[in-house]
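Whiteboard transcription, Tuesday session. T.W. wrote the structure tokens on the left side:
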């Protein structure tokens, strides 16, 4: 087993067409054989994705990418306008980070890397959209903001992961024959040197990556369920001037979504279904400010769901 693991891992690393997922699974086994929880934890996070409270390796972060914007002004609708974060009003742009992290499992990144472009939402964009809309009148608004990242950029991240893995294995085999296991201390030191301390396991608590409920944090930018509830309040505020007969269905949808999100054990499927209903009703009303506010809230809920805030 020792000979198979070390020799197979080293030989497969030299094959550029070898999927990273298979190589990382071998690292899981090697970590188990050597007793290195550092190696196992790093490989596991690369395979399963990084949780909301996990430290993200630097190689998985890119400078803030371009933003695609959907907007309306009067009867004119513009879609997929590409803007830079610096073009946002200051009170909207302040919600955006200088970098954008990729927490996805390695196999998902490999699928995204072969696409021309991919779009990503974030809690910061949802807040920026809400803040920007608060500056606009009822005849104009921002309907959606999303980051746009090229496949080549994601391929670059995968390349860095492969290079780190090559360096790591080179360190492990430099003074150890392929037929012998490196010592645990050697493996831990190699992981710390090549990867950093990202393998340290975060203690789970009520605001951990698997936590649920109104106190749960589940975002790369600190979004909580309470923040989402405030965005739902913005939808209700935007609908204040609509005739009561038109607001009934919207307020019912808001109430149902709020109840689903605030539940002690929120169900992802139920939350997303109610989010879709709210967005559909807001769009049907045809009031730009309501549509924009509902879109921002829906984007934030989706971000929470993606990061595992709901059961």
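and on the right, the sequence the group agreed on:
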């Amino acid at each position: 087993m020792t000979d198979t693991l070390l020799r197979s891992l080293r030989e497969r690393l030299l094959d550029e067409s070898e999927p990273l997922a298979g190589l990382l699974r071998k690292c899981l086994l090697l970590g188990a054989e050597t007793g290195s929880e550092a190696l196992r934890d790093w490989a596991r996070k690369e395979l399963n994705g990084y949780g909301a409270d996990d430290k993200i390796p630097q190689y998985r972060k890119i400078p803030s990418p371009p933003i695609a914007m959907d907007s309306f002004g009067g009867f004119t609708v513009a879609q997929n306008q590409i803007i830079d974060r610096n073009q946002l009003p200051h009170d909207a742009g302040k919600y955006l980070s200088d970098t954008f992290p990729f927490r996805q499992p390695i196999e998902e990144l490999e699928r995204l890397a072969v696409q021309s472009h991919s779009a990503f939402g974030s809690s910061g964009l949802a807040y920026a959209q809400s803040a920007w809309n608060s500056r606009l009148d009822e005849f104009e608004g921002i309907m959606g903001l999303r980051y746009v990242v090229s496949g080549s950029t994601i391929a670059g991240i995968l390349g860095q992961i492969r290079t780190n893995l090559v360096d790591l294995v080179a360190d492990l085999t430099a003074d150890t024959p392929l037929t012998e296991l490196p010592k645990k201390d050697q493996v831990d030191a190699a992981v710390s040197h090549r990867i950093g301390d990202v393998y340290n396991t975060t203690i789970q608590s009520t605001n951990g990556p698997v936590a649920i409920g109104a106190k749960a944090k589940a975002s790369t930018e600190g979004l909580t369920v309470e923040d989402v509830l405030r965005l739902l309040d913005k939808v209700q505020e935007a609908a204040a001037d609509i005739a009561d007969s038109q607001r009934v269905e919207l307020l019912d949808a808001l109430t149902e979504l709020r109840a689903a999100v605030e539940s002690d054990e929120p169900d992802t499927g139920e939350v997303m279904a109610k989010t879709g209903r709210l967005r559909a009703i807001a769009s049907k009303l045809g009031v730009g400010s309501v549509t924009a506010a509902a879109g921002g809230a829906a984007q934030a809920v989706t971000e929470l769901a993606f990061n595992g805030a709901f059961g």
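Someone added at the bottom: The radius of gyration is 23 Å.
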